[in-house]
Structures are given as C-alpha cells and as structure tokens.
Protein 1
Amino acid sequence: MSVSDVSAKVVNFTQKPKTLFICMTLQLKKPIGAIPKLYFYGVGLDVSHQVFNSRRPGDIRLQDDYPLNLQSDVTISAISKVYFSTLNANLHGSLKQTFGTVSGEYNNYPFTGSLVAQGLSDDTPFDASLNFGHIVLPYASEQNITLTDGKITAKGTPDNIEIRILTELSAKDIPNGKYTGRGVITDGGMTISRLTAKTQGGTLIADGTMDWSGEYQLDANLYGQKVSINDILPLQYREYKDYLPKTFSGSLGVKYFYLDTAKNQTRWQFNLAQKDGEMVDVSLAQSQKKPNLPWQIDAKWQKFGSRKFT
C-alpha cells in the first residue's frame, strides 16, 4: 500500500480484530517506504466511541501497534459529564499504549498532569495523574467547597474510574483541613470508600455515595473519636455551641438532596449517634416553590445512659 498527497473525509482502516475510524479531514504526504505515515492537520480519531481527538498536528503509522506522535484535543465521555473540559494532550507511543502530558479545566479551573492509555483495548483503560492549585467544586455551590494544592490520580476505564485525592479543603459548613481519599466514579455518580480529614479539632473519617445521574444527591457517614466540635464549628454557628456536645465520638449520617422532586424541596438530613448514648436527628428543608421562605427545621434528641447496679 503506497499513497501520497491525498485528502479524504473519512478513512476506515481495518486490522483484525480492531477497526480504526479516522473521521473528518486528513491529508497524506509522501510516505516512508510502502506503509503510509498519516500527517494530521484536522482529524478526529474515534477509539471505541469513547475518546475523540481533533484539530491538532501530528502523525500515525498504519502498521504494527500504530506508532503515533500527536498534539490532540481529547474528550472522554464519562468525565466530560462531570465538569471536565476537553483535554489538551501531547501524545506519543502507539495506539496500543499511549503516553502523554495533559492540561485542561475542571469546573473552569485549570489543572495539568500525565496519562497512559491503551486505545486498542475494548474498554480503553487508562492511568492518569493530575495536579491543581485551586479548584471550586460544582456540587453544593452554596458551600463554596474549595480544593487547593492538590493531586488526583485516576485509573480504570471511562465507565469505571478509580480515583485517589490529596488536597487542602475549605468550605462554608464543612471542616477545613487536609483531606485524603479514594473512590470510584461511574457514569452516573461516585462511591467514596474512604475519606480522611485532618482538621484542627481532630481526625474525621467518611464514606458514602454521590449521585448526579439526575438531581444531585449525597449520602455519607462520618466517624470520629474525641473530635473537638468547638474547633471545627463554622463561625456562623458559634452562637449554638452551648447546645452542642463538646466532642464528637461516634457516627454522623449526612444526606443532601439538591432537589427532592417528590416534595419539591432542597433538604439536609443529619443523624448523630454518640458513643455516650446521645442521639440527634435533624432535618432541614427549603421549599423550591417559594425559595425565599426560611428553612424548616425538625429536630429530635435522645440520651440513653447506663446505670451501675450493685
């Protein structure tokens, strides 16, 4: 096969058991030897209908594992649904195993990193490391959850991504501190297997789930041992400190519904179970029919104790 000085709209190149689709416009210059080397000037590359590269210069050889050298805009469908921009990548290696550096934005905040991807595998597995200086999370926007000086590592496939995170975190009602955690992102949400927060008042550990397949929902559990509540209580709640326990030793269930469609409410639910027998259930709800109305608060408190008999 030998071609040169050719333009095409679509090229369908088949090598069992994989079919490689190169879409949009490409140009072929004088090849080296009998196997052509494709020089890309404006090209889309569809691998398993998951990753798309476009509109950057580069080249790829139609032989062996398809050696390549590309500057590419990469869109990964699973992460584009969760506030990641198109990634700008410098790629080398081959389609079978691609190495590169990337830059992009998460919720419009920049990050940089590196990746390794296996584009010829059916599920397109990858391994990436991302660094950022300042990011504001797009969830629970009223909390202004801000991550600084952090690192995220991600591996898996576009439909199932295992992530680990190390960052400083600050927010309106969430304890500030250094957070480390791990979880799994799927097409419609995230499972948090462990999140550790080292705060001024002590160490908190959490697990739970986030679901963004519809209206955003959070379901989490926090655990602590002799954590000073006064030290982690946000300033706007300090006037209530005399009504709160001094320390947190037990578990706290937290549920957040951005919009409970059945009741047309934004709602928080808290379930506190202290090791000393104290139990508190609190529900905060705000109508979305009349969002200017104050929050409705429903709270229940119980204290179970033990008495020693002789």
Note: The chain has a mean pLDDT of 79.
Protein 2
Amino acid sequence: MDSLLKDSIMKDSILKVDFANSGFEFEGDSLSPERLKAFEVRATQKLKDLYDYFRMMLDTSIEKSFKLQAKQMMLALFESPESSIVVALDEGDKPQKMTVSDFANKLTSASPINLKFEIEKIRTNTEIEKGTIYKGELIYTQTIYRMEGSNPVIIQHGATKVKYVIKRIKKQFGNTQKEVWEVLLGDILIP
C-alpha cells in the first residue's frame, strides 16, 4: 500500500480512537460549545485529508486501484457527491464550478493532470448556525500549480472557503444502528 494512503488511513483511525477514548459523545440532541469546537477541529482535519486525497489521485507513481480507493475516501468526506467545487485546471482558465464527483473523475482519469495543491492559513468561521444541523465554514489559502521543469506555474492562488455541516446521521455499530453527530464537507467556493 502506498505510504501516503497508509498514513491517511492511519491518521483517520487514530483520530477516531482519540474521539472514542476522550469520552466524546456522538449521540445527543444538541452539541455543547466544547463538542462544537471538537467538530471544528475535525472539519479542519477533513479539509487537510481532502487535499491529501487530491495529491494521491494525481500521483503517477500510485497504482490505479489505490487512486480509486482515495477517490471513494475523498467523496465520503462530503455531505453529497453533488457538492460543488470551483477550480481552475489550467493556466489562463477561469475557475469553473463542477461537482466534487466530476472533479474526482478528472483527477483519476486515464490522462493524468499535472497539478499540485497546497493549502495554508486555515481558519474557522466561528459563526456556527444552529438548528437541526450546525453549519460553519473554513477559510484558507489555496494554491494550484503545475511544474514546468523546476519552475512552478501558478494556476490558481487565493482565498478559498469550504462550507461544512455537523448533523446527525445513522451509523451501523455491529448489529445496532445509532444516530450520531458527524461533520461533513460541503461546497468549496472562491469568496
């Protein structure tokens, strides 16, 4: 198994164990401010995981089967495969809106795309809307570039935001099904 994919799977497993061992409750009708903060942290981790999956899907040294597994793991981060992403794929292109599913298909297509992704300066919008689901957003700086020899050619650089929701979903635990809180990514936009 590719080390980047293995590291990502291990990181996700460790985070789940940390949540489970910390007495963190996934059940309940509402979330305390402390639990909301923990879910904000989890949303940030899912954003970082997303860009790790982008890199895996674009890595020409990774086998196709692992790229397809990364694609499935990437799509599982989202509330819906129909969530949108606004992204430019080549120098001089205007950023275009597409579904994350379509974007993942482009990244795993037979003809590889020569793109690199970097994110930095992630911050959380502290205005979390309450209701039956909690909503928030992460704002960060995204750089998409490709290499020409040893020179990077910037395709897209600037502020980007991803919306996220924290909502109750049904999960299977052995033979028992429970309703638990989960954070899922939504649309990725250029503000």
Note: The mean pLDDT is 80.
